[in-house]
Design goal:
The chain has 288 residues and is mostly helical. 51% of the residues lie in helices and 0% in strands. It is built from 11 helices and no strands. Helix 6 packs antiparallel against helix 7, helix 7 packs antiparallel against helix 8 and helix 10 packs across helix 11. The radius of gyration is 42 Å and the shape is elongated. The protein starts with 23 loop residues before the first helix and ends with a helix.
Length: 288
């Protein structure tokens, strides 16, 4: 079935008038091109009603292909049907309007302009003045605005090389909870490999302040309790007086100020007792 437009599909579009001065020769050239492109030539003298797209002039390719298949099976019943070329069933008229287009170019002076190669000196190519202009946004550019991981669809994780910078990136991309959980894993990795205390202190301080300001104090408190058996973390927190987050610092905390003081003091007393025991052992060895 050949689908044809109905009367409801016709739209009358209104276009604004072109404010340009044209002469009769130019109008005639445009009219000739429009007449040449008009496929419905039923209003022309001697033309068939409906033009070349009338049903009597244009066959349905689906029906024609079916007839060919029936004919092929009747004449060659043992052969396989070959794939036919549908274009052979379409008798689409060709329109030659090259003469009208050439006349249109002459009347309106249409000339193809080739782009000229612009010669630039080395000073113009490599000058950095544009970087210092006030109207540019280069000074507001941040490296965090463009991430290769975003384009590749990779997940951003916090590494041990620069965990503080990675934490800011993950927090902006995936949220504070994901960043804090990732930072806890990095701290555990640093403790396992006995990394420098400066990097470890920066991570613990950043984790505590982020959980405190982000109102997730239980995350830090649970982490501190679970990893307190590590001697490196214990000595670092005792020296810097890093304890549990209290209710006065963040709502929702499960520790009071007395709990935080007792937690830190209890471990400090244990540390002093262990040092005293070691000193007593050294004295006994000296006496022997």
């Amino acid at each position: 079935m050949v689908e044809l437009p109905y009367a409801d599909d016709l739209k009358q579009a209104e276009f604004p008038r072109i404010k340009a001065k044209v002469n009769e020769a130019q109008l005639g050239a445009v009219d000739k091109l429009i007449d040449k492109l008009d496929l419905d030539n039923s209003d022309r003298v001697g033309a068939k009603a409906g033009g070349p797209f009338k049903a009597t002039h244009l066959h349905n390719p689906q029906i024609q292909r079916r007839f060919d298949c029936v004919k092929h099976k009747a004449l060659h019943p043992d052969e396989v049907l070959a794939l036919g070329d549908v274009s052979q069933y379409l008798n689409i008229p060709s329109i030659d309007c090259e003469e009208e287009v050439d006349a249109l170019k002459v009347e309106f002076g249409i000339v193809k302009i080739e782009p000229k190669a612009v010669k630039r000196t080395a000073d113009e190519m490599f000058k950095d003045d544009i970087m210092n202009q006030d109207n540019t946004d280069f000074k507001h550019f941040k490296t965090e605005d463009i991430s290769l991981d975003d384009h590749l669809g990779l997940e951003v994780k916090i590494g041990t090389a620069d965990p503080v910078s990675d934490f800011s990136l993950v927090r902006n991309k995936q949220g504070l909870d994901v960043a804090c959980n990732g930072l806890t894993e990095v701290i555990k990795t640093l403790l396992h490999h006995n990394q420098s205390s400066d990097k470890l202190l920066s991570c613990v301080t950043l984790l505590r302040s982020s959980c405190c300001h982000g109102n997730i104090p239980c995350l830090f408190n649970e982490f501190l309790r679970s990893t307190w058996s590590d001697n490196l973390l214990k000595s670092l927190c005792t020296r810097e007086k890093i304890s549990l987050i209290t209710r006065d610092e963040a709502e929702g905390s499960d520790a009071s100020q007395n709990d935080a003081d007792a937690f830190l003091c209890h471990e400090a007393i244990k540390t002093e007792e262990s040092e005293d025991v070691m000193d007593d052992d050294d004295d006994l060895l000296d006496d022997l």
